[in-house]
Specification:
Elements (H helix, E strand, L loop, with lengths): L2 H12 L3 H8 L3 H8 L4 H7 L6 H10 L1
Amino acid sequence: MSLGNNFYNARKKSGLSQEEVAGKLGISRQTVSKWEKDILANVWKNRKNNIPNFKNFISTLSDM
């Protein structure tokens, strides 16, 4: 399963929209969409370390 697929599944499981995730991470909805489609896979890998509390946010999504 790709990184984008994992992100999509975690977001759906949490009940959040792309817009809500984007707002929480301080990015655009379009970026979330591209991450989920693996269009920005390399950007995703680099960006995740620059977003405050990214790991906590993803953990929270995964736990829901």
